[in-house]
Design brief:
19 helices; single chain
Length: 419
């Protein structure tokens, strides 16, 4: 009898997760508000303190914070099985929508694709606005703002003068680890609490480590594009702090600049379209990895969408399941206390670097397309003032109005049709 009651409660829980997944437009902040309204206030599956406690756990980990939060809530409500079912239900709508959009995008005629041109402006404006919001809290701490500028300087301002050195896909994790190390040593005199011996469920960490290492080895040894793209996405999901906005520069650097498996226009269109899709922003990997494998036919593209989805979401969920049972003790460890601010600060700098790099093709005029060395700028008319004004206006409206992400995308498409 008890088992039937539990199964019924779990079904009701998953039903509520599905309702949230098809209405959750926006970033992690919007998602958290929806979790609070539907799961705490309306259905009373959790208390507000339960929700905030779970959200705090996920802030300690790399990966998609809102996805990790709702997955861990499922784990908390009904164990690991319900946790993974929660993950599947949460990402299913965005996976289906972005898979469909990846096919529609490729099947559109060039004239129709031209109507999507202002989505690029909207997407760049969105990332600029996100980077400004993320930078604001850092101004309270000099070390954090310096670390953010350090990350921006290395990955943005030095990107084109020293492209042969900076373009390596390992530059982002190197910058993140450097920020963590600097923060750790700067805060070496801060107090911390020692913890007694901890008991972990190591199976999730072991699976994570095995997948991380084996995917890297298989991709390196075989050079199979499917294995390589799985490894790329799995690595992104394993090291990115700061949510979907911090994921963009990694994908841009790896897929557009380094491997050239998608174009700038495809990438920036994906960034724009994911804002109009309910669910996690990390689902942008569904769209982009699908396009990256579109040359392998319909089934290759579908496989790409599946690979991008599984690889980007799996590592964060495994780490959350490993950490959650002992998080109150883990967060008191010296490394986390002293280095976490540095990781957040450098992640914010990477988002600002992403905004800068994505702005360059639109904001400046170039003699040779997609060559962003400063010597390639058109000297007589270097600034594309129309694009600059459009981006500035959109950024201001994003701060001054409460227009939702889907409406921004709709307005961008309408502008492309009318103008």
């Amino acid at each position: 009898m008890s088992s039937k009651i539990d199964n019924f409660r779990h079904w009701l829980f998953l039903k509520e997760i599905f309702k949230i997944s098809i209405t959750s437009f926006g970033g992690p902040e919007v998602h958290l508000a929806l979790f609070s309204k539907r799961l705490v206030n309306d259905k009373k599956f959790f208390s507000q303190s339960d929700l905030l406690e779970t959200y705090s756990v996920c802030q300690l980990l790399p990966g998609p914070s809102s996805t990790q939060t709702i997955t861990t809530l499922g784990y908390r409500f009904g164990g690991p099985k319900l946790g993974f079912l929660t993950l599947l239900v949460w990402i299913l709508p965005s996976f289906l929508i972005l898979t469909l959009l990846s096919f529609l995008y490729l099947s559109l005629p060039s004239g129709a694709l031209h109507t999507l041109r202002y989505i690029q402006h909207m997407a760049v404006s969105y990332i600029i606005a996100a980077s400004i919001r993320m930078l604001k809290p850092l101004f309270k701490d000099k070390t954090s703002i310096l670390l953010a500028f350090f990350a921006f300087f290395i990955c943005a301002l030095l990107r084109h003068p020293l492209e042969s050195y900076i373009k390596t896909p390992w530059m982002f994790p190197i910058v993140l680890l450097t920020g963590a190390a600097i923060s750790y040593f700067i805060n070496r005199n801060s107090e911390f609490h020692k913890e007694k011996k901890l008991v972990f469920n190591w199976i999730y960490l072991i699976v994570f480590v095995v997948l991380f290492i084996s995917s890297a080895l298989i991709g390196k040894l075989t050079h199979n594009i499917f294995a390589v793209l799985f490894e790329n996405n799995f690595r992104f999901g394993s090291i990115v702090f700061g949510g979907g906005n911090a994921l963009y520069p990694m994908i841009f650097e790896q897929f557009v600049k380094f491997k050239k498996v998608i174009t700038y226009n495809e990438f920036i269109t994906g960034v724009g379209l994911v804002q109009a899709t309910p669910g996690p922003i990390f689902s942008v990997s569904t769209f982009i990895t699908g396009l990256a494998l579109s040359n392998y036919g319909v089934w290759g593209q579908i496989a790409g969408c599946i690979i991008g989805t599984v690889a980007i979401f799996l590592p964060g969920s495994l780490l959350a399941f490993w950490l959650f049972p002992v998080w109150k003790s883990i967060k008191k460890f010296r490394f986390f206390q002293r280095s976490f601010n540095g990781i957040i600060a450098t992640s914010t700098g990477l988002v600002a670097a992403s905004a800068y790099l994505l702005f360059l093709p639109l904001g400046l005029n170039w003699q040779t397309p997609n060559n962003f060395f400063y010597t390639n700028i058109v000297y007589q008319n270097p600034v594309n003032w129309l694009n600059v004004v459009i981006i500035c206006v959109i950024c201001i409206l994003m701060f001054k109005t409460k227009i939702s992400s889907p409406l921004w995308v709709l307005m961008a498409i309408l502008a492309g049709i009318i103008i």
